Amino acid sequence: MGRPSQHDVDRLLDAGVRLAAQAGPASVTMAAVAREAGAPSGSVYHRFPSRAALLAALWLRTVDRFQEGFLAATREEPAERAVMSAAGHVVAWSRANPLQARVLLYGPADFGESDWPEEARERLRLGNRRVEEAIVTLARRLGPGTPSEIERLVLATVDLPYATVRRHHQAGSPIPAHAEELVARCAGLLLAEPVTDS
């Protein structure tokens, strides 16, 4: 049995996350990741053939980790609880994973999405589609699933919690423990009144 590599993919990506969280996506270069991870440059190039491949892997690993819990929350019963859990997950995950949350406050375009390998861009599309389908499914569990109801769910489960996370990030302050409950309760209140399509 071979020895595990000292500079495995996760260690290199963890180094990239630290760099991106501290100084933005532009700071994530092959050489910088090697220095941050304490690895030879050859280790980075061996695992990522280009900077675009490195940035794609960094973004996709981060967003996959986040979406796993978000999608699970949208499947909870009853549907009203699912909305509150999904909203709360955004804040709870961000508080537990502050560096990765800072990465997600950017977007894939900031990580050079247009230059990613096609396989990586397809993974991104599939992940986004899963989230969109989960929100539409949740809207239909709550009612007819009209466009305005879907918009309300996006506001409750994405926009509101992300705004909370972003505000604390921009202030340089940790997300307080009570923020998760506040966001979940606000998401629940958004469901209290029906909305109609005009």
Tags for this entry?
elongated, AcrR family transcriptional regulator, HTH-type_TetR-like_transc_reg, DNA-binding transcription factor activity, 198 residues, transcription regulation, HTH_TetR, 2 domains, mainly alpha, 71% helix
Number of beta strands: 0
| Average pLDDT, all residues | 94
- Biggest sheet: strands, sense, closure? none
Radius of gyration: 19 Å
State the helical fraction: over 70%
By DSSP (H or I, 4+ residues per run), the number of helices equals: 9
Q: Helices and strands: which structural class?
A: mainly alpha
Distance between the termini: 65 Å
Give the tally of structural domains. Answer: 2
Give the overall shape. Answer: elongated
Q: Low-confidence spans: pLDDT under 50, at least 5 residues?
A: none
Portion of residues in beta strands equals under 5%
> What's the SSE pattern?
HHHHHHHHH
Structure description:
It comes from Streptosporangium saharense. InterPro entries: Homeodomain-like_sf, HTH-type_TetR-like_transc_reg, HTH_TetR. The protein has 198 residues and is mainly α. The chain has two domains: 48 residues, Arc Repressor Mutant, subunit A (Orthogonal Bundle), CATH 1.10.10; 127 residues. The chain has nine helices and no strands. α1 crosses α2 and α5 packs antiparallel against α9. The chain is elongated.
How are the elements arranged and paired?
Layout: H1 9-23, H2 30-37, H3 41-47, H4 51-74, H5 79-96, H6 98-104, H7 118-142, H8 147-171, H9 179-190
Helix pairs in contact: 1-2, 1-4, 1-6, 2-3, 4-5, 4-7, 5-6, 5-7, 5-8, 5-9, 7-8, 8-9
